[in-house]
Design a protein that fits this description.
9 helices, nine-stranded mixed sheet, two-stranded antiparallel ribbon, alpha/beta
Length: about 350
C-alpha cells in the first residue's frame, strides 16, 4: 500500500539572506565596509510576495471532503457476536472525525496478520437497521477466506453517534466513516491486522460511498469492489429514489443547496465522477443487467468516465441478474476474491 497522508494546504517559505552591515542613514539603506574596497551601496532586500489565500470551497462537496483533515482511530472490540471454526465475530467501535461509529468485525482463526477489508452496506432505514445488516453473506465468506472484515454501521445507524445534518448534506458523512474505518484499522496495532493491505467493498448506496472514497482519499485503500452501485451523480439518485417517494428531505436539500437548475456548480462538485482523475486504485464493479433498483446504465456511464481518464476499472455484467445477486452471487464472489487476491496478497 502506498502511504496516505492527511491533505493540507502547502505553506510558502520565503528565505531572505542576512548580511552583516554597519552604518546606515536615516532612510535605512545599509552599507558594507571593506578594508580593500571602497564603500558600496547594498542592494535593497527582496520583498516577500504574500502567498494567495486558499480558494474557498463548500464543505459539502468533494473538494470540501478532500481538504478536510480526516481522522480514524481507537478501534475497540466488544462482545462476541459469532464464533466459528474459521473466525470470531465481534461488535466494534472506532472513532471517525470526532464521532464514535459502531460496526462488526470478523477476525480469521490462525496466525496473522491478515489483510483487511472495509465493507460499506447499502441503504437500510436507520430506524430498523441493526449492526452488521446488509452484507452478511460477504462478511462470512470473506472472513472464511482469510480477511479481517470490518463492516461499518455508518453514523446514525445502530450504536453509532448521531449526525443530524447528514441527510441534508447528501450523506457525505458515510464517506468520512469509511475513511475513518481504514485509518482505525491501520493504527489499531492489533497483531491480527495487516494495516498495509486494506481493500474496500460497497454495495448499492455503499457503491456510491466507494466512488466518493476513491476520489477523496487516493492511496488509502489498495483496491475496491462495488456491487450494483448507485449513480455517481447524486441528483440522479435523488430523482430515482427520493423525489418519487415524496421524501421531505429533498425540499430541505434544495432549500440548503439549491436545485441542479439553480446551482449547477454545487451539483457538479458533489459528484465523484467530476474528480475521477484523482483515483489511483483498481476498481471492480459487478452489475446485473436486470437491475431495476440501480439501472446498469448508471454504471456504464461511470465506467466510461473511468476509462476515459485512463483508470484501472473493470465491469462484470450478469445477464438477467437483479439487484440482490441471488443466483449469480457465488460467481461474483469468486471474481471478487480473485481480484483481492491479486491486489492485497
Amino acid at each position: 500500500m502506498r502511504s496516505w497522508g492527511t491533505a493540507c494546504v502547502a505553506a510558502v517559505l520565503v528565505l531572505v539572506a542576512a548580511t552583516g552591515c554597519t552604518g546606515g542613514g536615516d532612510d535605512g539603506d545599509a552599507t558594507r565596509t571593506s578594508p580593500s574596497a571602497s564603500t558600496r551601496t547594498a542592494s535593497p532586500a527582496p520583498t516577500a510576495t504574500p502567498s494567495p489565500a486558499p480558494t474557498p470551497v463548500d464543505p459539502v462537496s468533494i473538494p470540501g471532503l478532500i481538504r478536510r483533515e480526516h481522522k480514524g482511530s481507537d478501534l475497540r472490540l466488544g462482545t462476541v457476536l459469532a464464533r466459528t471454526s474459521a473466525y470470531t465475530g465481534y461488535r466494534v467501535t472506532y472513532e471517525a472525525n470526532g464521532l464514535t461509529i459502531s460496526g462488526l468485525m470478523n477476525i480469521p482463526t490462525g496466525k496473522g496478520p491478515f489483510p483487511a477489508l472495509v465493507l460499506a452496506h447499502g441503504y437500510i432505514d436507520p430506524a430498523v437497521y441493526t449492526t452488521g445488516r446488509g452484507l452478511a453473506r460477504e462478511q462470512d465468506l470473506l472472513a472464511r477466506n482469510g480477511y479481517v472484515v470490518l463492516h461499518t454501521d455508518y453514523r446514525n445507524h445502530a450504536g453509532s453517534d448521531k449526525d443530524p445534518d447528514n441527510d441534508v448534506n447528501l450523506r457525505f458523512g458515510y464517506t468520512e466513516d469509511v475513511i475513518g474505518a481504514a485509518m482505525a484499522l491501520r493504527s489499531s496495532g492489533r497483531p491480527e491486522i495487516d494495516g498495509d493491505r486494506i481493500g474496500l467493498l460497497g454495495r448499492s448506496m455503499g457503491g456510491g460511498v466507494v466512488y466518493n472514497t476513491l476520489v477523496v482519499a487516493p492511496g488509502l485503500f489498495d483496491a475496491a469492489v462495488a456491487f450494483a452501485p448507485v449513480s455517481s451523480r447524486p441528483e440522479e439518485n435523488i430523482d430515482h429514489f427520493q423525489r418519487p417517494a415524496g421524501d421531505p428531505i429533498v425540499a430541505e436539500i434544495e432549500a440548503e443547496h439549491g436545485s441542479p437548475e439553480e446551482n449547477p456548480t454545487f451539483w457538479k462538485e458533489v459528484s465523484p465522477i467530476t474528480y475521477v482523475d484523482r483515483v489511483t486504485e483498481p476498481l471492480l464493479i459487478h452489475h446485473g443487467t436486470a437491475d431495476d433498483t440501480c439501472p446498469i446504465v448508471w454504471t456504464r456511464r461511470t465506467v466510461a468516465a473511468f476509462e476515459k481518464a485512463g483508470k484501472d476499472v473493470r465491469l462484470r455484467t450478469y445477464p438477467g441478474e437483479g439487484h440482490t445477486f441471488s443466483s449469480q452471487w457465488p460467481r461474483s464472489m469468486d471474481a471478487t476474491m480473485a481480484f483481492f487476491e491479486r491486489h492485497l496478497r
